[in-house]
Amino acid sequence: MSDSKKELHFLKNLSLFSELEESDLNKLLEMCPECLIKKDEILFSEGSEGDSAFIIKRGEIEIFKASAGDEIILARRKTGEVIGEMSLFDKAPRMAGARALVNSVVIQIQSEPFFELLQKSSTAWKGLLLTLLSRWRDTENILKERE
Fold first, then answer.
1. Nearest Cα to Cα of residue 25 among 131, 129, 132, 124
2. What's the pTM?
């Protein structure tokens, strides 16, 4: 299987993209760079401006937040998961930071090409909204436990 077919297959297996046409996914891949993130490297910092999300193609990324001089680990995300998705909606400061736990490869999804795809797929919208709601609840629960 060619590399481009493998990438298409990888994206098609993600609930966010499962209903999109291959031609649309190809366009998305053309506009979305892959990035290598080395172990312990910060992908993005809490408070930094964001306009993109990341799909973890390989590796593991830790999501963390500063709180009263401590660092709270909110989640550990692995291959096939999306991180930073809230930044697709606005350019508000990021609510948490992300750091590679191992050498990782991510696909950077910029907001503009992503929204072009969302206009074609209600399934992608539903997948994104379900991801956002689930993560919001998880974060709220973690923060409540620390009170």
1. 124
2. 0.79
In the chain, where the domains are located: 3-145
What does the radius of gyration of the chain's CA atoms come to, in whole angstroms?
15
Do the Cβ atoms of 115 and 88 come closer than 8 Å?
A: yes
Dig out the tokens for 87 from the structure. 């930044």
Nearest by Cα to 63 from 34, 90, 83, 36: 83
What distance in Å separates the CA atoms of residue 68 and residue 99, rounded to the nearest whole number?
A: 20
Angle at Cα 116 formed by Cα 58 and Cα 105, nearest 5°?
10
Q: What is the CATH number of domain 3-145?
A: 2.60.120.10
Q: Which residue type, as a one-letter code, is found at position 48?
A: S
Number of Cβ atoms within 10 Å of the Cβ of 29:
17
**pLDDT above 70 for 2:** no
- 42 in helix, strand or coil? strand
